[in-house]
Amino acid sequence: MIKWKSEKGxxxxxxxxxxxxxxxxxDLGTSPLYTMQAIMRTLDFTSYNFQSFxxxxxxxxxWTLTLQTTIxxxxxxxxxxxxxxxxxxxxxxxxxxxxxxxxxxxxxGACALLGDGVIxxxxxxxxxxxxxxxxxxxxxxxxxxxxxxxxxxxxxxFGTYKLGKYFGPxxxxxxxLLLILGIFSLSSYPTILKALNPIYAIxxxxxxPSSLAFLGAVFLVTTxxxxxxxxxxxxxxxxxxISWIFVKLSLILNYFGQGAWLISHESTWNSSxxxxxxxxxxxxxxxxxxxxxxxxIIASQALISGSYTIVSEAISLxxxxxxxxxxxxNVKGQMYIPxxxxxxxxxxxxxxxxxxxxxxxxxxxxxxxTIAMLMTSFLLMYYLKSKRGKVFASIxxxxxxxxxxxxxxxxxxxxxxxxxxxxxxxLVFISIMYTWHRGSNIESLFVKYLSIDRFKDLFVAISKDExxxxxxxxxxxxxxxNSPQRLEHLIFYSILINRVKRADTYWFLHVNNTDDPxxxxxxxxxxxxxxxxxxxLNIGFKVExxxxxxxxxxxxxxxxxxxxxxxxxYQSLKDFNVLSDIRFIxxxxxxxxxxxxxxxxQILMNxxxxxxxxxxxxxxxxxxxxxxxKVESIPFETSKRIFQDEENIKxxxxxxxxxxxxxxxxxxxxxxxxxxxxx
Length: 679
Fold this sequence. Notes:
Layout: H1 14-23, H2 26-29, H3 35-40, H4 50-76, H5 88-95, H6 103-129, H7 141-155, H8 161-164, H9 167-186, H10 198-207, H11 211-218, H12 226-230, H13 232-235, H14 237-264, H15 275-278, H16 285-316, H17 338-355, H18 358-361, H19 367-388, H20 390-412, H21 415-444, E1 449-451, H22 456-464, E2 470-479, E3 486-488, H23 489-498, E4 502-514, E5 520-528, E6 532-540, H24 547-560, H25 571-574, E7 582-590, H26 599-615, H27 618-621, E8 629-635, H28 639-642, H29 646-651, H30 653-662, H31 673-678
Parallel strand pairs: 2-4, 2-7, 4-6, 7-8
Antiparallel strand pairs: 1-3, 5-6
């Protein structure tokens, strides 16, 4: 049995706490770079007192962090895990069997996080680099940001393990800097601590005319909170909870330090001043800018890595086409997806070029992550119903959904100013995931599953028929059938009709994507010993799909157990114990224009096959050996074409049985159109 080795760093330890700072808190930890400045840009001097506004803003920041991050994620959501793994797709797997429609909010939430993966690198890096303008006013910030982002995405293909081990220590320095700066600045106006009282936030929200715009800026304080849940498997719940104490203290004290500085400099403040850099002593500024830039890069790296994880999970759950995934290092969980990397890089560059400054990016930042949090709360409510009862789930869901809808409405006020950008990015990803999920389900209706027992004698007969040229000694088909006793009709068509494929041993390999994130096991069914063998490979949605490697490992074990003989059947080679040749066949089901879809399904299926044509490379996605693998394309409907020769049916009664099992005359007649249109 293949077993999963547990990752290091998930147990509570000093090292685990440091690692957690680098993996989990990058995005959340860089929010002081821009959040307070964004809040102050919403100030209207004519309608509200400066000091009251600052205190009310700090109160709103504190309680948003407390309610959204501490209570919702640290205390409640982290418990919704599957064997230590978290994330919106994992939450979906815990409740999907109870509600068939629940996949849609999961898709929306995941795509919103992908949209955040575009905006966050652009926003954080730009905010950090803008601090350099103090020293070099004529500096081309956009060019520097584009260069940093491009280098960051280019480096992904080589793996980030060697750099990643420095992320934790750097973020520890960053949070320590936030803490120290906050304490020193706070000492100039300690009365600012009264902002801990929620009444100041409530008063500001009620009485301030532009409270929605204000709340849109406040929400920036909690962007990155989703990472606590998504990265649960990398760090462990104890490390996340303990390190959050230090992180939250650093964030709060820094925000309050910025507030103290603002009140102390009310007469000289203007909206172009970033209070984060303003609280730094002049001698510290150059070093502060460098550390801030490094922290921004780490935050961006976390979002990029998170995007890879989301897409890989979506692939396993059949929400995304099987695209190529690379593993540049031997570190468990570290991956590189070229398509995702290139797409995010292009979109990040376009965002930077479009907005030019962090101030303008604020309009696009926050909207997508608000939607992601809202979808998580929605799924969490259904999860809590089964664990804590309807009353607790309803109250919890109502509180957090109400808060997040309020923030969503607040962020929607920025739609015309640039918020539409993040929504467009999100909708593009939603269209791909939704279409792939629905299209795959419709396509599956055209597959018939036949009993393999009916044909095993035929396979044995073909393997012994020397009048048929040998196709391969070992012929391996990837099958979608969940039953060991059945295979899809497409495989029979490929072996018996499309081209008679003689082999000494027929293998049928089924990859079962399980809800257990770390599962990696297999079962072997010897239908006809040494002639017809099936392998069921159970792979969790967080496990690397190295199908070729797993097949070799399994067959090697079977050889050692003397269950199979994988030596070449050619006598000259067999005498020297040379292993026999292996050939893989992957069947690609293609669209047939014979079926009369309604208009909406026609559009959906056309888009589905366009995605399939542009993105899917089954050989690379399954990590099969390209030199030994063939993709065989077969249209939806094959039975009519197979059995139109009545003479063959009369001569060989087995084919008549085959016809009876497949369909009567046309595969389409057995699939009610209503069933397809309901999918």
